[in-house]
Amino acid sequence: MTATKIAIVGLGKIAKDQHLPSIARSDAFTLAAVASRSASGLDVPTYEDLEDLLKAQPDITAVALCVPPQVRYELARLALDYKKDVLLEKPPGATLAEVHDLMRLAEANGCVLYATWHSRHAKGVAGVKDWLSTRTPVSGRITWREDVKHWHPGQAWIWQAGGVGVFDPGINALSILTEIMPVDLHVTAAELTFPENCETPIAADIDFRGPDGFTLKADFDWRQTGKQTWDIEIVTKDGTVVLQDGGATVLIDGKSVSADEALASEYDGIYAHFAELLATRGSDVDLSPLVHVADAFMLGKRVTTEAFHDEQ
């Protein structure tokens, strides 16, 4: 099998920490170029501009967009206009309408469009989805608390309109929730806490409801120091399951159970799935996590807190 030549657009922290290593480990892809203002020290051609890259290397057939969501739409349209297959980092866009437009363009141009949700590839997720499929959920709770200064140092775009703030990690929890739940949920209320100097929230409390009286509360917070918390608990009529450590650890009725063999990275799962999509020429764009974020903003009560400063 010939490896797909892929270009990365935006060489920030997530691209360096996750995309580059996963592409290097994959037999299905070879990194052929990078478009980024901060690219250096790589053994592939680098460009500041995506269109320059596409014109210079027409044999590249796939593009991974790792830029902030506020600027991703125009770059994705450009790549699709050049008939390239496109992988979108999460969240797939700054708005739902943007992504719907990309879906239409990808279909019209015969391109593969893949909206990635890396947390769905955590090793415990598939098993919990299977366990819940034969049970009736009663209630649930998400606790997703981490230290933004550790995970997103100096990333000012996150605090600007369209950067989604605490939903940048929180949408990982929602991507798992929408994958494992055997029923559909919707947001009924939210309280969003904004630093007085930021355009996006640093914390969010969200209420969800499902069929037959199911309720779930989500607690997202970017101000936690020390041990980080990424937990999802679902209570059913026949037991309770907890996904901890972002989906890596599974507890059923308080007892640890073995999960599937872990990938070296959740992003290895992303690129394995992208390779499958390219082979079958099918797109995968599930917007359900982003819908919940949009609804939380629609229904959210705004609370103001002290200013946030990025200094450690």
Structure, described:
The chain is an alpha/beta fold and 312 residues long. The chain folds into 2 domains: 4-115, NAD(P)-binding Rossmann-like Domain (Rossmann fold); 119-260 and 294-305, Dihydrodipicolinate Reductase, domain 2 (2-Layer Sandwich). Helices cover 32% and strands 28% of the residues. It has a 9-stranded mixed sheet with strand order 14-13-12-11-7-10-9-8-15. α4 links the parallel β5 (85-88) and β6. α3 (69-81) runs parallel beside α4. It is globular, with a radius of gyration of 20 Å.
| Strand residue percentage | 25-35%
Mean pLDDT reading: 95
At the first level of CATH, what is the class of the largest domain? Alpha Beta
N-C termini distance: 47 Å
Number of domains: 2
Strand order of the largest sheet: 14-13-12-11-7-10-9-8-15
In terms of structural class, how would the helical and strand content be classed? Answer: alpha/beta
The CATH homologous superfamily of the largest domain: Dihydrodipicolinate Reductase, domain 2
Largest sheet, if any? 9 strands, mixed
Rg is 20 Å
Low-confidence stretches: none
The total count of strands amounts to 15
Percent helix: 25-40%
Global outline: globular
Q: List SSEs in N-to-C order.
A: EHEEHEHEHEHEHHEEEEEEEHHE
- Enter the CATH topology name of the largest domain: Dihydrodipicolinate Reductase, domain 2
> Number of helix segments?
9
The CATH architecture classification of the largest domain is 2-Layer Sandwich
